[in-house]
Amino acid sequence: MNAVLAIIRRDLLLAMRRKSEVLTALFFFIIVASLFPLGIGPESALLRTIAPGVIWVSALLATMLGLARLFAPDHADGTLEQMVLSPTPLGLLVTGKIAAHWITTGLPLVLLAPVLGIQFDLDVGALGVLVVALLLGTPLLSLIGAIGAALTLGVRGGGVLVSLLVLPLYVPALIFGAGAVESHISGLGAGGHLSLLAALLALAVFFAPWATTAALRISLE
Amino acid sequence: MLTATGLSCVRGERRLFAGLDLAVGPGEWLHVQGENGAGKTSLLRILATLSPPAEGEVRWQGEPVTVLAEDYRRAMLFLGHHGAVKEELTPLENLTLAAQLDGTTLDEANALSALMRFGLRGREDLAVRFLSAGQKRRVLLARLAVRKATLWILDEPFTALDVKAVDMLSGLIESHLAAGGMAILTSHQSMPLPNGRILSL
Predict the structure, then answer these.
(1) Which of B81, B93, B98 minimises the CB distance to A82?
(2) Cα dihedral B4→B10→B14→B19 (10° resolution)
């Protein structure tokens, strides 16, 4: 457990030392989500309709940006070898890395989403559902993304490949995440969508570190 | 005691070595020699369980390392070509984090004294990015002084080190062997250490 906390602390420290990577993803999220109201115009009914989808797609793309760098630096400088050789199981260390990735990319998106939602004329209730959906969904994005990042490790042009690999896998998160806000707006209640999103997250917490570990071991051989 | 029997390694279409036997007992060290591309690093990676051998088996204290898993990894320290040193972190942070990753704790005083021993006094709070290649290597070698491991597997430990650091490292290996440790290393230099054996690939 000590080693897992050390990995999380180390990755957060590294993120602090190279802030540009974290900030790039964050500004990307803000800009992409803000382009839509600017392009479509001030028609509040239409903006309300597209808001959940646009914010979720922006979140997916922003998460994608940093994925290629999730394991690549550790692979390049040999830290990954030392992680494999650590007495702590690699699966736990990988979970720690994914947690750190979520704290640096997912959590800021969750915190910023309500501010962006105001641009789309969402009411307080819908903003609340959006935050809860993102809170459940962004860890899912980090977990699934880690599998893609591990699979493309050491592959030339891995950055593009990881998008092709991971974006289709993000579709369920997108459907249930955006669907939660939509059904709340239409008065159906978001409970069902959020429960499914939580179920997906539980499944991913269990399987994604395992799959990521297997992929990392293959790429190290 | 580390023993390996009938090891072979295949990279792509090429067979680098086959039917390789080796044994290293307490206080002994093995000098793996060979031309570039002979499979020195591949052999060390197999011994460190980083990659599986095509054939053969590695045993630690009589048990296969694949069975021992964590117990073997705790008893072994592998330092590869790449330093596993983070450029953005300071030598002190690198050393403490590496220790935590090894499942041990390292207090600041011990970490500092190890860094001083390797001539990094006054550099402990400077990001590794600003250090020279040799100094980066010294940060890595400071791990040898703080991590308790019976078996050291070192890939080209003398790369980029100056004469003084080479002497320091030789001294460190010598005291490790005198305390009943074992070492396997690759190097293009000859090493004046006792109880050594040469393995030519």
Answers:
(1) B98
(2) 30
